[in-house]
Amino acid sequence: MDYTSIIEQSAPETWPGSTLWRDEWGSVGTFPDHQGFGSEIMRFRVPSRIMAKRLDALMEQYRSKPFVRVSPRETLGLKSWLMDHQYRLRERQMLMIWPARAATPQPSEYVHEVLNVEQLARVNALDHRIFQDPVLEGADLHKELQRLQPQSRRLFYIPVGDLVISAGGLSRMDSWALLWGGETHPDFQHHGWYRLMVEHRLFIAQDQWSVQFVATYANSETSAPILVKMGFQLWEMHEIYAPPHAIKIPNLL
Questions:
Q1: Architecture of 98-237 per CATH?
Q2: Which residues cross the membrane (predicted)?
Q3: pLDDT in tens, 221-231
């Protein structure tokens, strides 16, 4: 199965408040929200002969310079252009695939679904600690809650008392599903909570959504080794380049 082709035909998961753009060559990115979050070029497929001119013009449209994801299919010379403009390699991520034909993990009684504002606020507190996401309050929390829908976008968490110790999202993308935002509280790492969170979402994706496969972008040094042990396939490596003086990439809550 051509997983990358299927993934790229789907609308990408984007930061709320950012503005999605596309061009005729298949490039995709987002202009940031009013706080500068969601500034990213996810794909850049412009022909090499006009690459530099197009990038120069595109960067002029960004209020805050974007992070740039470089996959094996981007325009030849893109990485050289980025480094010439003081971009730096920030992170290597692995596109990882879990085929639906694999044995379905079982759901966990420890994992709960976010269904109200209070639960969402507690997950957001963990996002703020782990990813330095902005703290959501009032109307912003309600808007974010409205983005969660049973058949398309769901968010799960593991509570211990009033504390959320692990969380992760799941989005349905046509015939496949995307795992996003996986995180575990630093005081509770290395105890299997991350694995439980992944397994629960895989169960939802296959048992309730019947998707063909599940994909995720995992840090090559932290999450990817865990996912390999769970049966995920290492599909391809992506490099995330950060501009000078960049703010941290937010979690896709």
A1: 3-Layer(aba) Sandwich (3.40)
A2: none
A3: 999 999 999 99
